[in-house]
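Risk register update: the risk of archive-format incompatibility is retired. Evidence:
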Amino acid sequence: MRIGQIRKIAITAVVAATSALAPAVGWAVTGTYYDRAFVLAAHEKCRLFAAPVAGALSAATLQAHGAALRAGATEADLTATARRARVRAAEVSCRNPELIIVRDRVTDAFQGWARTPRMDFPGTRASWTANRLRAVEPRWRLMQAGMTGASPVTFGLVAEETGHEALSAVVSFVGRPRPYAARIVMRDPSLASRPWLTAAGVGILPPEAQRRTVWSAGTTSAEVSVLTEGRTQGEVWRFPDAGAADLAELDPREPFLIQFLFRDGSVATAQFEAGDFAAARAFVALGTI
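Archived output:
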């Protein structure tokens, strides 16, 4: 029997597009996400890839998810797309020759991605910068830059000397007393299941009753290696690790706040964008180079 007669399932992931897969917004928006979700589901079933490639594919799938949302897809569209990808993967034999072709192509594509030391994850208005290079001193593994007034604020994951990557905010205040507390303010998905978007598709914070607050776990003086260039002093505020998981739940179009509280009752606020935090965090999780 010829190969063409044996192949009962046509695998489109990475190789071709099928317009029937995502009619709500079209293949141009959801196609890349479908491709990566399919290959990821096939890997979970058949163990197609070594750990570095699988990790890179996971990060890229999250990145495609965020790109599709920014392009106009809804979460419902992407949930349906992921479901189709999992169903298709479940139907495919791990010995299917076309799956072997897909495996080899994905391995070639993502081996280089897994060896990449730095990567930017652009959002609508801001970007996350990831850095996997080894360093002795504390160093930003993942960061986004912001401001509160004239004072720079950097937020993300800091690789500490212990090897732990701490969710942190580093601020260098100009000409005012130091705050006594800091917090992250974001949408609470358990109270508001969808992001708040303007008519133009710009994310905004929901009312206070639908927000989640993550309080800092402590503060110390910041090492020079994590300060904004040109600054000589600052404080690093560390947050519980669970805060990173909370941020990863957010829609990439929506904002979150870092707020610093002062004893006179004032609050200094820096706004950040969720963006592809989840994808960038998965990229950093590939380890140092």
